[in-house]
Amino acid sequence: MKYALSHAALAACLAAAAVSTAAHAQNLAIVNGKPVPSARLQALEQQMARAGRPVDDAARQQLREEAILREIFVQEAERRGLRARPEVKAQLELATQTVLIRELFADQQRRQPVTDAELRAEYDRLVKQMGQEYRARHILLGSEEEAKAVLAELDKGTRFEDLAKQRSKDPGSAAKGGDLDWATPDMFVPEFGNAMKALNKGEVTRTPVQSPFGWHVIRLDDTRAAQVPPFDDVKPQLQQQMQQQRLVQFQEELRAKAKVQ
């Protein structure tokens, strides 16, 4: 009989130990008799990972201590009845909304991911939109009379590059003989860009071009198809941009459907 009782006591101890082990597996710790779920540590780890910080063993140990401290502080706040204060209730409601909204947007992006085919189509559209690049030189003058005088000197055979170095009021290009490097027309003011596009390779504007900066004499040196980075290089940025555009559209659709009185 005593042997049977000892077996029963042993079985009870083993069962209690199993329950205690299971509880510890589910909980990070027990603070003042209240379990701290392991899910809180996981949430802190995810938060750290989203911030781009590595989650190694040392970081996990720090996060574990943070989770325990949070529980201690919250218990003390609860003991003081702070949760019942109106201003605290309002802040808790805002915090809840922030979390739910963040998860809503994340869920929407998971439901409507941007496909590789869509990314490629957008890339091709942007490449086509960029069109051509132009390599031009210019001489910037302060008046139409000065610009006409420069044109007269060009007609006499004076080198464009030399006149740009001597006469141009554009310090950025004058030292380079007026060279503006490769650029698309939309990178210039409309007056300049339109005049540049109208030129043939090697041609100089026959009349001065006025812009908000002054009077220009322009020479077109060359044209080429717009140089864009390879698809794989810009894919991450393009994906982020398209995801953001879809998210904005999703927000606008929800706002339009909402009944606000």
TrEMBL record:
Any Pfam family matching the protein: Rotamase_2
Superkingdom per UniProt: Bacteria
PpiC domain boundaries: 131-222
Signal peptide range in chain numbering: 1-25
Reactions it catalyzes: [protein]-peptidylproline (omega=180) = [protein]-peptidylproline (omega=0)
Assigned EC number: 5.2.1.8
Record-level Gene Ontology MF annotations: peptidyl-prolyl cis-trans isomerase activity
Entry-linked SUPFAM superfamilies: FKBP-like, Triger factor/SurA peptide-binding domain-like
Protein keywords: Isomerase, Rotamase, Signal
Family of the protein in this entry: Belongs to the PpiC/parvulin rotamase family.
Protein name as it appears in the record: peptidylprolyl isomerase
Organism: Tepidimonas charontis
Organism classification: Bacteria, Pseudomonadati, Pseudomonadota, Betaproteobacteria, Burkholderiales
